[in-house]
Specification:
Number of strands: 6
Largest sheet: 4 strands, mixed
Distance between the termini: 30 Å
Strand content: 15-25%
Helix content: 25-40%
Order of helices and strands: EHHEHEHHEHEE
Number of helices: 6
Shape: globular
Strand order of the largest sheet: 3-4-6-5
Oligomer: single chain
Structural class: alpha/beta
Length: 191
């Protein structure tokens, strides 16, 4: 899980949940909930979530190996991969990026694919964290300004290669457009 899992309201059926963020924002979420007069039951759900011993936040920059190594250690101690990973990597790639967050600067050259290359590197690392027994990634393809023809050619080749490795991609639309939500399921490949 990349983020704090604030969308969850109950961890009863969860063995553990691990979040990865630049910094733990639990206290910020508590303050925001109180300041915005969030209903009392939702504030209690938030409190129950952030204080649950099943939940752990790994603080770190996902552009560095150190953070990925800490995530991998978590897997090695407990399982052969995560059953579910949810993330929304739009923030550092697009115009939603805040000044307080490390971001990927817009590239001036029109033919540069540096944002796409970085996204694919992060996607590849994330896919390897999935359990080979049906682990699921729920994510969104960030809007990066890629020319549609280039994006279509990339996804066609990439999906064929990943399918051969046991990954099934399910997109929100048939066009694999930037901003689409997608699910990826990892399955073991029989020898």
């Amino acid at each position: 899980m990349f983020g704090g899992a604030y969308f969850l309201t109950n961890l009863e059926d969860v063995s553990t949940i691990t979040g990865a963020r630049l910094k733990n924002v639990d206290e910020d979420m508590r303050i925001e909930a109180e300041a915005n007069w969030i209903r009392a039951h939702r504030q209690q759900e938030l409190e129950d979530l952030v204080s649950n011993p099943k939940r752990e936040i790994i603080e770190g920059n996902l552009y560095t190996s150190k953070s990925w190594n800490r995530i991998k250690e978590k897997i090695q101690n407990e399982t052969d991969g995560f059953d579910l990973i949810a993330c929304r990597p739009q923030g550092p790639f697009g115009h939603f990026a805040s000044k307080q967050t490390e971001t990927i600067q817009d590239v001036i050259e029109t033919d540069s694919n540096s944002k796409e290359e970085l996204f694919v590197m992060l996607l590849e690392r994330t896919l390897k964290l999935l359990s080979p027994d049906g682990g699921i990634l729920l994510t969104q393809v960030p809007v990066m300004g890629t020319k549609p023809k280039i994006a279509a050619a990339f996804w066609k080749e990439y999906l064929e290669r990943k399918h051969a490795e046991g990954y099934e991609f399910i997109f929100e639309s048939d066009h694999h457009e930037m901003g689409d939500s997608m699910a990826v399921i990892r399955r073991r490949i029989s020898p």
